[in-house]
Design a protein that fits this description.
GO molecular function: efflux transmembrane transporter activity
Radius of gyration: 45 Å
Keywords: Coiled coil
Protein name: Efflux RND transporter periplasmic adaptor subunit
Order of helices and strands: HEEEEEHHEEEEEEEEEEEEEEH
Number of strands: 19
Distance between the termini: 72 Å
CATH architecture of one domain: Beta Barrel
Shape: rod-shaped
GO cellular component, one term: efflux pump complex
Strand content: 35-45%
Helix content: 10-25%
Strand order of the largest sheet: 2-9-12-11-10-13
CATH class of one domain: Mainly Beta
Organism: Mariprofundus erugo
CATH topology of one domain: conserved putative lor/sdh protein from methanococcus maripaludis s2 fold
């Protein structure tokens, strides 16, 4: 009976050799396929989101802290020592210029004034009598001159007494609203003792300082907005009214004053105010800040040309505000600026516009590639 020859298994070394040879044969085919796919992807236009460059009003803004002050403000005090005889106001009362606020004791001055007026009347009567006698040559001219001198001295004394009484009568120097009374009738007060305060707060002045380097383009009449924590959510508009004539040599800052209408009485002197000053308003081309790339101190934007290709162009930037940046040079109105996807494109390569923004409100919208 014939026997079948035994089957021999290839050694492990021979199997590895065969697999290696097979991989060498397949490698060119795989590489060719991969290169074909890569080349196809590179030539395929990349999707981008663009926004047309447009003009809009822009302006420089300066922020600072300031203090609210009344248009006119004064502390009512006595200029001489004495007893406070009368208080003619209530706390918080509105007064007009010339209204009596308080009176100090004037009894002695009133008595002196009465005596001086009587003495002046006597001198005037004597002058008339002497003039009549002199007309008949029955009196000497010297006697008439002496009497006229005495009358003039008495009139001067009367003026001094009335001036002293005026100092003892405290009146409102301007229209405004009085504060809280600090003393009571009968109190002995000294010069400088505070009786009350008077503020004309129909208009509020806000004093604030800015660095002297921000003075360029600043003009009286520039618009300001002010807010305060005491009135959350409310914005008060006004104008820059005064620019100080000097720069502080220590802080290198300059004091500014703005005025805000306050006829409604919403603002009180002493409030801390946050001021935003708007300067140099003008029309300018703007694009979203995320369009700008920077390299070695230069700024660049990516554009989609009329033939659908990408262009990388250097530009000069200006003011930045609310996510937008001013392009002062290098861009024309209506050109399509790439907002999203500039990292996927190369200059001169074709691109596909997936979305065109009209404003910056779509900042959370992803590209199609990014979504996948």
């Amino acid at each position: 009976m014939a026997t079948m020859p035994a089957l021999t298994q290839p050694s492990p070394l021979k199997r590895l050799h065969r697999l290696h040879m097979l991989s060498l044969c397949l490698l060119p085919l795989l590489t060719a396929c991969d290169n074909h796919d890569t080349a196809h992807k590179q030539t395929e236009p990349r999707p981008v989101i663009v926004m047309k460059a447009h003009t809009q009003p822009v302006s420089d803004t300066i922020e600072a802290l300031g203090t609210a002050q009344a248009r006119e403000s004064v502390t009512i005090t006595a200029s001489v020592a004495g007893r406070l005889d009368e208080i003619s106001f209530t706390d918080g009362q509105a007064v007009h210029k010339g209204d009596v606020i308080a009176r100090m004791d004037q009894d002695e001055d009133k008595a002196q004034l009465t005596a001086a007026i009587a003495q002046l009347s006597e001198h005037q009567r004597e002058i008339k009598r002497l003039q009549a006698l002199l007309a008949r040559k029955a009196a000497a001219t010297r006697d008439l001159d002496e009497r006229k001198t005495l009358a003039a001295v008495t009139a001067s004394n009367i003026a001094q007494i009335r001036a002293r009484m005026s100092e003892l009568t405290l009146t409102a120097p301007f229209d405004g609203r009085l504060g809280i009374r600090r003393v009571s009738p009968g109190a002995l007060i000294q010069p400088g003792t505070v009786i009350t305060t008077l503020d004309a707060s129909d208009a509020i002045d806000i004093d604030f300082s800015i660095p002297s380097t921000r003075l360029h383009g600043l003009q009286v009449g520039d618009h300001i907005q002010a807010t305060t924590d005491a009135r959350p959510g409310e914005i008060f508009n006004g104008k820059l009214s005064v620019i100080d004539s000097r720069i502080d040599p220590i802080t290198r800052s300059i004091l500014l004053r703005s005025r805000i209408d306050n006829h409604q009485g919403l603002l009180i002197p002493g409030m801390l105010m946050r001021v935003t000053l708007t300067t140099a308003p003008h029309e300018a081309l703007v694009v979203p800040e995320e369009c700008i790339t920077q390299k070695q101190g230069e700024h660049f934007i990516t554009l989609v040309t009329s033939d659908g290709k990408a262009e990388i162009r250097p530009v000069q930037t200006g003011l930045r505000h609310h996510g937008m940046v001013e392009i002062s040079q290098g861009l024309k109105s209506g050109e399509q600026v790439v907002v999203r996807g500039m990292g996927f494109v190369k200059a001169g390569k074709p691109v596909t516009i997936s979305t065109t923004w009209t404003d910056i409100d779509h900042s959370n919208e992803p590209l199609a590639d990014e979504a996948r």
